Amino acid sequence: MELNSIKPADGAKHAARRVGRGIGSGLGKTAGRGHKGQKSRSGGYHKVGFEGGQMPLQRRLPKRGFKSHLLKFNAEVTLGQLDKLGLGEVDLLALKQAGLVPELAKVVKVIKSGELTKAVKLTGIGATAGAKAAIEAAGGALA
Questions:
Q1: How many CB atoms lie within 10 A of CB 80?
Q2: Taking CA atoms, which of 53, 73, 89, 90 is between 20 and 30 Å from 80?
């Protein structure tokens, strides 16, 4: 096999639709665009959401809600993930190296999901009330 002899399997490729190439092609004369009107012209079409001059839906509806751009710096870790990690002392850098939190994360919080069997000391990491109780019950601490 040579690079110049490679071709796709039969039926894998469809011939491009050649419009405006005569009556025999089935798409001659108006090229499948019908007669007259904005949609038949080259370069002529409305913008997305345009409703013929009527106030568009996205402008009729009220603005609503707010999503903080700072959320990308927050992350959460479960008790189960901490247990699998198997480290005695856990900080933000250890979680990033283990791939449990994204590199952008600045604030990490432990949530009560899963079981914790080992004693873990957390430094610079927050925890929910339930997670804190579970960590202390397993002999760990929060610093």
A1: 13
A2: 73
73 alpha-carbon distance from chain centroid: 16
State which amino acid sits at residue 118.
K
What tens digit of pLDDT does each residue of 27-59 get?
999 999 999 999 999 998 889 999 999 999 999
Q: In what order do the strands lie in the sheet with 74-78?
A: 74-78, 107-111, 126-127
Q: Rg of the chain's alpha carbons, rounded to an integer?
A: 31
Average pLDDT on 5-18 reads 94
CB atoms within 10 A of CB 63: 5
d(CA 85, CA 95): 9
Separation CA 124–CA 103 (nearest Å): 16
Computed from CA positions of residues 134, 135, 138, 143, in that sequence, does the dihedral angle turn out positive or negative? negative
